[in-house]
Amino acid sequence: MKRALALARRAGRLGEVPVGAVVVDEAGRALAAEHNRSLSLCDPTAHAEILALRKAASAMGNYRLGGVTMYVSLEPCPMCAGALVWARVRRLVFGAWDPKAGALGSVVDLAAQPALNHRPLVEGGLLAEESAAILKEFFAKRRKGGGED
Fold first, then answer.
1. H/E/C letters for each residue in the chain?
2. Which residues of 108-143 are buried (b: 16+ CB within 10 A; e: fewer)?
3. What's the Cα-to-Cα distance from 57 to each of 3, 93, 147, rounded to whole Å?
4. 40-73 tens-digit pLDDT
5. Which residues have C-beta within 8 Å of that of residue 60, sequence separation ≥ 6?
6. Active centre residues (catalytic)
7. Strand 30-35 versus strand 69-74 pairing type
8. pLDDT tens string 88-122
9. Contact between residue 31 and residue 55 where contact means Cβ atoms under 8 Å apart
């Protein structure tokens, strides 16, 4: 999670919403690490989780990522939560809850939908205060007109 937070800080310095994600295999080896890049890639799907899933799938040679754990600094949105389900991610650990767009417990809970064929294990709140502080600082700077460091 510390690496995901470092990636979130990097995203914030680049003017991106500060979210970072790391995918690790069952042995704890990092397969992928990314941060949000929606602005720089001009791509609404370039969230940290999506980019990390793409890299992890490439590293594993399979779009199904059974056995992996993703650490992400913020509760995933519906798009990213859906991608985690489709990728068959075994476990997701996130930092801050997202009361506006969180899709793994805050607004909706895709991991609890009985109709879906896969439900990842979800643990929220790991280093939540630190993750929330990164986001609050970023948006406070943005509101004051100093969006970039």
1. CHHHHHHHHHHHHCCCCCCEEEEECCCCCEEEEEECCHHHHCCCCCCHHHHHHHHHHHHHCCCCCCCCEEEEEECCCHHHHHHHHHHCCCEEEEEECCCCCCCECCCCEHHHCCCCCCCCEEEECCCHHHHHHHHHHHHHHHHCCCCCC
2. eebbeeeeeeeebebebebbbeebbebbeebeeeee
3. 19, 18, 33
4. 999 999 999 999 999 999 999 999 999 999 999 9
5. 25, 31, 68
6. 49
7. unpaired
8. 999 999 999 999 999 999 999 999 999 999 999 99
9. yes
Structure tokens at 71: 């650490």
Residue 10 is encoded by which pair of tokens?
Answer: 């990097």
Token reading at 23:
């995918």
